[in-house]
From TrEMBL:
Residues 190-348 form the Glycosyl transferase family domain. This is N-acetyl-alpha-D-glucosaminyl L-malate synthase. InterPro entries: Glyco_trans_1, Glyco_trans_4-like_N, Glycosyltransferase_grp1, Thiol_BshA. Pfam families: Glyco_transf_4, Glycos_transf_1. NCBIfam families: thiol_BshA. The lineage of its organism: Bacteria, Bacillati, Bacillota, Bacilli, Bacillales. GO terms for molecular function: glycosyltransferase activity. Residues 11-176 form the Glycosyltransferase subfamily 4-like N-terminal domain. SUPFAM superfamilies: UDP-Glycosyltransferase/glycogen phosphorylase.
Length: 371
């Protein structure tokens, strides 16, 4: 098939999922056309069957702001007709599904639109009444809608009171890339022998509850030698830096910023912290599990569908720092329990979230629409 993928090319779960999906579909022989503002960050080197069409937003003195969404819609329509696309897969209802719908009105070819909901448009943007209507249009006008967790389906149904069928296609991980041995080369540069490595990786938005991450670590390091490795940047970055300094934690915290290749960093850790307030899935939790790293997280959104509480990690109510500290120390202090969790985590990632299986689910979706 000929498939267009519209996604955010920047560091983040939805971009990572869209890019890995495109790469896997190309390996399966499909022709893939990425349409984004930039080359997607996980694309890597040249890949056969993959084409990239960069959006250049039209600017003109009378346009007060660059017309990004219209330029994207025009680009999608052009690519649909020029390359005879069968499907456009939009990763986010807003703006991508809406742009794809507009493109469909302009294109000559009857292309099908598949929209995957990743969370932020539903859990954050849809709180704005105006945007809510736009998001609803994107959902209703798609030919098929998927969401990355059952929790996100529930929230979408509740918020939009829509009868549109929404299928759950969980996010996935390439367990050959994210595997327990992937961090062995770099572990020594993160921590000394005998020190534990606690990892948090995110876009440092308020919903990630960065203060909880710091507070949990501050109390872990009082009990056991440890380093906190922070991967990512975002709005809370400066606040986090100040808090780490204020608590005298500077010698124990490594700020690694934006990283393109993360499998080795994830695999070099002992625990992943994900105490989020909102999280439709938590891709980083799955990547950690694939590396055999147990997760200490909150019960927000789709996290409990990824992390099996008491089996592949421990979950606590949002903001229950106390329990997250207790659970972290419980795991770090009991080697045989830790090893069991590590094994369970890897096993669960392979059994329920393997890239091969999820790509097949998307292929089945495309097939159904194009029959
Ligand atoms: O977590 C973020 O803030 C980034 C956001 C994105 O657009 O990449 O992540 C969302 O999509 C990911 C991939 O489906 C999910 O794993 C994240 O849970 C989801 N983030 C939220 O729901 C807050």
């Amino acid at each position: 098939m000929r498939i267009g993928i519209v996604c955010y090319p920047t560091v983040g779960g939805s971009g990572a999922v869209a890019t890995e999906l495109g790469k896997a579909l190309a390996r399966n022989g499909h022709e893939i056309h990425f349409m984004a503002t930039d080359v997607p960050f996980r694309l890597g080197t040249f890949i056969e069957n993959v084409y990239i069409h960069e959006i250049v937003a039209a600017t003109y003195p009378v346009l007060r702001t660059p017309s990004y969404d219209f330029s994207l819609a025009a680009l999608i329509a052009k690519v649909v007709d020029e390359y005879n696309l069968d499907v456009v897969h939009a990763h986010y209802a807003m703006p991508f599904a809406v742009c794809a719908y507009l493109a469909k009105q302009m294109a000559e070819r009857d292309v099908k639109i598949v929209t995957t909901l990743h969370g932020t448009d539903i859990t954050v943007l849809a709180q704005d009444e105006g945007l809510k209507q736009v998001i609803q249009l994107g959902i209703e006008k798609s030919d098929a809608v998927t969401a990355v967790s059952r929790s996100l389906i529930g929230q979408t149904k509740e918020l939009f009171e829509t009868a549109k069928p929404i299928e759950c296609v969980y996010n996935f991980v390439d367990t050959d890339v994210f595997h327990p041995g992937a961090g062995s080369q770099i572990r020594h540069s993160l921590a000394h022998t005998g020190e534990r490595v606690i990892l948090h990786m995110s876009n440092f938005r308020a919903v990630k509850r960065m203060d909880d991450v710091i507070d949990i670590f501050a109390r872990i390091v009082k009990k056991t030698p440890a380093k906190l490795v922070l991967v990512g940047v975002g709005p809370e970055y400066n606040h986090v830096r100040h808090r780490v300094q204020a608590l005298g934690l500077n010698p124990f915290v490594l700020f690694l910023g934006k990283q393109e290749e993360v499998a080795s960093l994830v695999a070099a850790a002992d625990l992943l912290l994900l105490p989020s307030e909102k999280e439709s899935f938590g891709l980083v939790a799955l990547e950690a599990m694939a590396c055999g790293i147990p997760v200490i997280g909150s019960t927000a959104g789709g996290i409990p569908e990824v992390v099996e509480d008491g089996v592949t990690g421990f979950l606590a109510p949002i903001g229950d720092v106390e329990k997250m500290v207790r659970d972290s120390l419980r795991l770090l202090g009991d080697e045989s329990r830790y090893q069991a969790f590590s094994k369970n985590a890897r096993h669960r990632a392979i059994k329920h979230f393997h890239i091969r299986d999820k790509v097949s689910e998307y292929e089945a979706n495309y097939d159904r629409l194009c029959k």
